[in-house]
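Progress against Task 2.4 (sequence-to-structure conversion) is shown through the following example record, which the project officer requested during the mid-term review.
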Amino acid sequence: MENFPLDNLTEVFSYFNLSDLSKLSNISKSFQQAAEQRKQYIYNHLLRPETQVQINGLQSEKGKVHNGRIGTIKGKPNSDNDRFPIQILYLTGETELLAVKATNLNPFLTPDQLEQEKKRYKAISYSQDGRVRESHGMLLDQIFMLARWSYNEMTGQTYFRNMDFSQYMNLSRADPRVGGPNAALFSFYKVKPSLAGYSVPHDETIFDSVVKSLVQNQNQIVQAVGKKTKWPADGPNGHFLIRNMVRFMSTWDAEVIIGKFWIVKTTNTGTILVSENSDDDESLGKVYLVKGLASNIGDLFLSRFGDGTTPVQGVLTVVPAYNFLVYDGIALGPNKRASPSKKKQILKHVEEAVKSDSIVYQGTSASLGKWDDEPPILPCIRGDDSLDWGKCNDHVEESLSHCNPGENLTCANFVVDEEHKRIAKEIAKLAKKVGVQNIKKKGSSITIRRFGYTRDENPNLMCAMILGSTPVHMFTFSEWPSYNLDEILKELLLCFKDIKKVPSMIMVDELSLVEPMKMLFDEAFSTVGMKESSTCPTVMWYPPPSAMEQTFNQMNAGNGPPPFH
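Structure tokens generated for the chain above:
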């Protein structure tokens, strides 16, 4: 190989970085010469200040965590040890300067790596006060309030009837009338009221209702807010602002994060939150970076309810927007401060996540690049006041499935048959004999609740019927994850015979059974001469409890602190 042309050897080595070249041994003189030329080229032309490089091959315990990370060269190498000053930019906005040998630096970044780093930098540079930009915050707050308003309209909350939306918007975010809907809001988010047993003038989902309001007022919103955001993703003068918001909103039912978090510390780019893996508060889960709305989340909690450095616990709702996460302005708690040992555990867990770049800072759709392109067009409003999604209709209808309310809650399969009709008629006959308990009286509603909504929580497939607040009947169902139509009708008949009454409201936690039960009871009660709506039980959906609902109930029972903004 001694006479191998030098130009050809140089071309061969063009695929080598310094780490590769350092491993060469027992090579000919011409190879050595070509390898040395390659080294000088990398030093002189590629390892220059402000060049982005990938760190690889660090062996120390402190160094290993940085392998694979992209950093920026901030100066010339130290002449004594050939180490370059490499600046690491963390998701928190903090920086660290490392001294890294040239052989541990790879300047040959792929297009995908460069694109991911560009997105990461956008998330970091979006704001430097731990919250969303003021104009985005104002609009997101209004969207959240519209969703709560729509939920109140759907469920007919009495405290809300003598109020218009402008009055509702002026309520403190600490008001229970604002925080109350959060417990079940996303359970109903894409469920039509009629499917949940509610009767309202416009049978549209909460999502559709909010989208319609945004479409109707898009010009005013863009004029008032769009031009102020000055965020490239919103287009010139905020042209894409509403389209972006609708795209984000369409994923919230699937990507919302509701749960108990340790609120750890405030950074320039958001507040560090740590979820828990178990109910015993011992196991720590994912680390999140979340932006506030009007205020930084950490400012609301850490100083007001602690010493500013000790993590406190609260329940929050977090949703994705753009390439970051934002909380909805309502929080329950804090109801706990970390003990010294717990604080140490949490801070170590957070430090590891920051160093390894494993912090969750954006939603699934954003991380998969689904929001990289121009947002889809907005729907039109038809003459009957319903939304027309045009070319997006097929996609939207798929995303608005009214059947599956949760990941672990696949809908029960049912076929209405003569046996079902017979049992429904037996219930109707019993109601005619003993009367239907008036809706205004105590014990007028019965709720069917499974004991748990994962196999670990409910290994024996148990379900309870609760009259008012008293369990009156329990049964097991045959197949996970839920009881079927045959089982619920038989158990209701047994229960009603036992308690010698038929409540005027039946609330089930299996959404797919609401419609067939309503149909069966309407027909059966009509057959026995009880056709009036006041004598036929109302069947409604009672969604499984969210993490926030469970905590809300626990805190109310213990007179815990109210939600606040």
